């Protein structure tokens, strides 16, 4: 025990002030250490950009999913009840009973059919949905999204409400007629012929999702029944719940409350492929972008290895002056960890700044590049939104810090293993 104490210094407490002082001196650039400082600078920038990119991309994909989900569930029911075995003639009573189920906000009967809408600018396939005025007011995405005209007197009139993009593509303004053709219309001795009818446009709405704004036409409920040959019937019932994620638990109570044979499907079944693809894309993007942080962490390894090689004489002198192997290890650990920690913090701040101004950043880049970076025809939504989730952002920051700290261990360990005799032999 005595011999070991004589040959191995006892050292000071871990992370003593002199260890921080030496680490800070190694971080500062000198003329003959410029190249090492450049590598450290690139490591810092790489980690900063990697963390910021990860935060921004994850937030944008979360925002895209959240916004898209809010549009889909804001216009369509969380569950849809369709009649089986017989026509849906008792839709009003069934809707009232379903609305009484705990967890259900309201139930809306509707008539729906595909049709062809034509105007001065051309013709497009549309989805015509017949709905009562009181029920349409409950769908706030439409009732509060009216940009031109009004929904007042919607039930009494013979007009329709169409999406803003549909109006633009058909060349239709408020008050203009839109001709709607249903493939199964009039029954004649020669068979079923298409039905054509013109309706004045009494309201133009925008829900902020290009696919819906370009495809939906809302028609008075009674008018839609007559137009689609569904006198006294409804196509289905849209059911809106308090919590869309709990629709599975409501399926059985709704089927029991209906008191008739119905088939109930929820939004997850109708959009399973789409949202599964989004989840896969999100996970793959996370793995790919993590490589940026990993490459930057490897730059820390390279920079610290070169620094250890350059400072081998200093390490030998410190060892002969009484510094322990642990002190040398901590000095270089602090040096590398400072780069990784500073880069992670800077990346976090940059990511938050970009996320808070993502739409302005998009518009600025679109103006500089002369192209639309977020075309609504491709991404469905008219605005880019970033939704930063605290758990996910924390995971990114922790992951970057762990990679940065792990990258410093090997070079610091090599520095601690340097033999003072070998390091000073050729000096």
UniProtKB/TrEMBL annotation:
Membrane topology summary: Multi-pass membrane protein
UniProt entry tagged with the keyword Chloroplast: no
A single cellular component GO annotation: plasma membrane protein complex
Subcellular compartments: Cell membrane
UniProt KW keywords: Cell membrane, Lipoprotein, Membrane, Transmembrane, Transmembrane helix, Transport
ABC3 transporter permease C-terminal domain boundaries: 287-420
GO terms under biological process: lipoprotein localization to outer membrane; lipoprotein transport
Domain MacB-like periplasmic core: 44-256
Main location: membrane
A Pfam family recorded for this sequence: FtsX
Bilayer-crossing regions: 35-61, 284-308, 328-352, 364-382, 394-413
InterPro entries: ABC3_permease_C (IPR003838), Lipoprotein-release_system (IPR051447), LolCE_TM (IPR011925), MacB_PCD (IPR025857)
Family to which the UniProt record says this protein belongs: Belongs to the ABC-4 integral membrane protein family. LolC/E subfamily.
PANTHER family: LIPOPROTEIN-RELEASING SYSTEM TRANSMEMBRANE PROTEIN LOLE (PTHR30489:SF0)
Name of the featured protein: Lipoprotein-releasing ABC transporter permease subunit
Organism: Methyloraptor flagellatus
Record lineage: Bacteria, Pseudomonadati, Pseudomonadota, Alphaproteobacteria, Hyphomicrobiales
